[in-house]
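I keep forgetting this: the sequence line spells out the residues, with the fold written below as integer tokens. I include a record here:
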Amino acid sequence: MKMSALDRVLLLLTGLLAAYQVAVGIDGLGTVPIIAYTIGFGVLLVAGLLIFILGFDVLDSPVVVVVSTIIPLTLSLGLVWQHLASFRTSYLVFTIVSFLAVSLTRSIPMQNKLPVIVLAVTHGISGMTIFLLPIILSIQGAVQPLFSLVGVGGALIGVGGLLLSFLKTGRPILSRETILRLFPTLLLLTTAFFVAGFKFG
């Protein structure tokens, strides 16, 4: 599918927002959250630029499923480390094990449903963490209300990740053309909600 000029503009804006967040949007945090957020937004930046330069064909790469898992895992790890101190170690272990499990099930041909199950569990837990935790914290008054925008971004990135992942597994939720048509807008909105939530929350 050919990329339109509007798609390129949306991807460029996504890259600029992600670059801003890496450069100035995560100052003053602990070491682990800074590393986690830098990786997450760094992958968003690189992904946006690669699609901008190489077109939608880059999404056909077999590493897309693995890369699309890095973003929610690292962002959710940063949130848990910041706001749920008692779960830090257990969630760090979950993040590492999940990433290794997704990588392993994608590198070894399997005829069963294990790769899909691993992917769904990984995206489900990390995506729900990014979605629910900021909203719950906002309702409880532990953070500023606008921090809930991070949760909106989490919902969007969860949708985008699942769409791409199931497309790569040969079980697309929507047609390939529809997913590619929505992807630049979804990526920009996701990044914009994240940046706004972290900045104003």
Q: What stands out?
A: Helices lie at 5-24, 31-54, 64-83, 88-107, 114-140, 148-168, 176-200. Residues 114-140 form the longest helix (27 residues). The radius of gyration is 16 Å.
